[in-house]
Amino acid sequence: MPPSRANTSITRREETSVTPLAPTGAARVAPVSQPRGLRDRYINDWRCRLTLTSTPKFLGPTSFSAVYDEHEHSPNHHSSIPSLQLPEFNPSRVQNVICAVDDRQVQLGAEVLSLLFEDFPLYRRAAIAGEEQSSEGIMNLPIIRTLCDIFEEMYNSVSGYLDLNLRWTALSRRLFEGTARQFVTHSAMTYHEYVVLLAGRWEAIGFIFTMFGTCAAHTTVNDPLFCSLDLSAADHKNLGILAIAGGDMCLQFCDFVGVRSEALGWLLLRHIHLLTMVCGDADFRPRKRLAELSALIFDMGYHQLDTCEYLPFFLAEGRKRLLVTAYACDKALATFLGFPPLISYRYCRIQLPLDLEPNEVIAEPALREAAICKLDHNGWNTKGLIKGTSWSRVAMKLGHVRELILELSFGSLDQNVQQSAETISSLFQQIRSRLPSYMTWDESTESVLRLTSTMPIYIHLDLLYSNFLLQRILVKRSLAGPEILASLAHQILKAVIAHIAIQQRCGNPFSELGWTIPYFGLPSAGILVIELLRQTQKTHLQPTKELFPRSEVIQNLSILASHIQYIHLPQNGNYEICQQARKVIVYILDHLLSKPTEAPTSASPVPSNIIPTDWLSEEWLNDGSEFITWIDGLDWNE
After folding, report:
1. Computed from CA positions of residues 459, 463, 469, 475, in that sequence, does the dihedral angle turn out positive or negative?
2. Of 151, 442, 524, 626, which sits 20 to 30 A from 311 (CA to CA)?
3. Nearest to residue 207, comparing CAs of 266, 151, 273?
4. For residue 262, is pLDDT > 50?
5. Is 57 left (phi over 0), alpha (psi -120 to 50) or beta?
6. Where are the alpha helices (DSSP H) in 517-635?
7. For residue 21, is it left (φ>0), alpha (ψ between -120 and 50) or beta?
8. Are 65 and 59 in contact (CB under 8 A)?
9. % of the chain beyond a pLDDT of 90
10. Region Disordered: what ranges (predicted)?
């Protein structure tokens, strides 16, 4: 314990906080007297919360108690030697204590339930649709429908109250009592038993809100689910905001009673996803919630999973899926924001989940084992089916590559960048070569027309973008020229346009645009428009091995700008970033095309302020959001 905290007590902190200090040289001001009841209430609230277990369930090899555990399990330990165990301390066996449910929290919970039951059938339908559209439920299993059924039964079971407010209050209290109980599982637990336990907790209500918001973010006002409500575009976006508010309250309730469980981890993960869709990936709140999720993962020991023999199979697989999904989410946000990652591969023992169908994961042991036997030796399904679990398995590998690139971008100047880049490049090839054939992207037209999933091209895009980021590092260190970078940018732009076309053909034209365009499209477009301007400014073009495809690049940039304007949904959190970037792209294209085409050797110069001098710097083009930081320097009325 640091010295500054060693002798600090709760009482001293309370007394200090209610006694203002008089300024030096000023007359002493009498302290404002606080009602004794308020002071006592604050202390009692926290005294109750301090009775809950807050010690991590997982303590690592450098923890304060590690030496005692190591002695206990040492091969040289003799039974005649007394056990070296801290008195009354064994984190693995500590159970949460159910404290008295706070009446104010119960009333807040009743408010949340009243919001949900304003139109529960709508929340139910939209939440189920959100789970189906995103393929991102809890443990990648279809759970929302069952949760809603069980929760509706709970609501009907308190029908003895004629007053709705009393009914909501009674149900809220029941949810708090259920949430405060330890979530006890065992190896023989069935999937239905798990869902029944989960339905009586605030995590379940949070799932309904977040999946409802996910559906709203993936649809428009004309969707059959919402068209009867006669909503405006602004009202439709408010549905996502409402879902965030409801989910956030459920997370606060879980925090109040000291919940730590995989169900809370999945709720945090889905809430983060919803925040990015509604608030945008550049917003601080998703990253803040991700920090909570990473802390929970380490606290529960999911980063060092053992054989999980004490868990039912579906829950053991669910924990693997939670870790790999959180890991991939962390790398994506870290890349987008240019931040260091929160979950490091080098400190995790990551196990890939098996590539099974949801019904196979929750099947009887005999059926499950038969399904596992049909997987290949790497754990992939041999039916050519692309599922949510398939993406989780690939996303972990892509995230590992991205983490290495982030390390290189934040690394010291004396690091051997060239050697590290070669090692990372070999990983690109390794990942591509080890993918099942149905997960690989083939640019031939016939193959594109047969695609029923956007996942193969998304994997292709992610690998291209990692290579793009790697080349940016090399160019900034003067270890490579800009030609390869420009070529990669054009490949990414073409793949983004193909991704949008495939997405529309697959019948889900909106769901991923809010991420694909700012994450992949804007940085590549930024490099290309600047390369176009750079070539225009040159009075003598240097000969290159491969001529820059100016006409094709301009066409593809125009297509991207059109997609941003007409397809990107206004309720998406990244909408404003994309629209501002579109203005820049259109402005530069107009400038390039406003004059007759001249010979390359006598290209007309452009205004000096149109190209940032540090166009390859980390500050200017680190991610999609930074693409438009120099807009204010442009003369829009020119």
Report:
1. negative
2. 151
3. 266
4. yes
5. alpha
6. 522-537, 550-566, 575-593
7. beta
8. yes
9. 44
10. 1-34
- Rounded CA-CA distance 332/610 in Å is 30
Of 563, 497, 486, the residue nearest 532 (C-alpha) = 486
Type of residue found at 455: M
What is the maximum alpha-carbon separation in the chain?
Answer: 94
Q: How many contiguous H segments (helices) and E segments (strands) does the chain have?
A: 25, 0
322 contacts: CB under 8 Å, gap ≥ 6? 139, 262, 265, 266, 269, 297, 302
Single out the residue of 243, 390, 225 nearest to residue 324, CA to CA. Answer: 390
Separation of alpha carbons 143 and 131, rounded Å: 9
Tell me if 585 sits within 8 A of 561, measured CB to CB: yes
| C-alpha to C-alpha distance for 179 and 111, rounded to whole angstroms | 17
First to last CA, the chain: 63
pTM of full prediction above 0.90: no
Distances 153 to 108, 158, 327, 457, 553 between C-alpha atoms, Å: 22, 9, 36, 43, 58
Contact residues for 251 (Cβ-Cβ < 8 A; gap 6+): 206, 264, 267, 268, 271
Q: Is the pLDDT of residue 365 over 90?
A: yes
d(CA 459, CA 391): 9
- Average confidence score pLDDT of the chain: 80
Coil/strand/helix, residue 138: strand
Q: Tokens representing 128? A: 């189920």
Helical spans, DSSP H, in 477-521: 482-505, 513-516
d(CA 215, CA 211): 6
**What gap in Å lies between CA 460 and CA 17, rounded to an integer?**
56
Neighbours of 551 (CB within 10 A): 9
Residue 269 backbone phi and psi in degrees, to 5 = -60, -45
DSSP string, 591-605: HHHSS----GGGPPP
Handedness of CA 603, 607, 610, 615 (dihedral sign): positive
**Domain spans of the chain, in order of start:** 99-279, 441-633
The pLDDT value given to residue 382: 92
CA distance 485 to 632: 26
Q: Please give the distance of CA 533 from its chain centroid, rounded to a whole number.
A: 36
For CA atoms 227, 229, 231, 237, give the dihedral sign: negative
HSE toward the beta carbon, residue 248, CA cutoff 13 A: 12
Whether 169 shows a pLDDT value over 90: the answer reads yes
Picking from 16, 519, 609, the residue whose alpha carbon sits closest to that of residue 8 is 16
- DSSP lists the bridge partners of residue 138 as 141
DSSP state of 19: S
- Contacts of residue 290, defined as CB under 8 A and 6 or more positions apart, other chains included, come to 268, 272, 326, 329, 330, 333, 342
Q: Dig out the tokens for 483 from the structure.
A: 């030609």
Q: How confident is the model at residue 9 (pLDDT cuts 50, 70, 90)?
A: very low
User: What is the C-alpha separation between 348 and 294, in angstroms, rounded?
Assistant: 12
**Pair of tokens at residue 596:** 């007759």
Of the candidates 475, 384, 396, the one whose C-alpha atom is nearest the C-alpha of residue 436 is 384
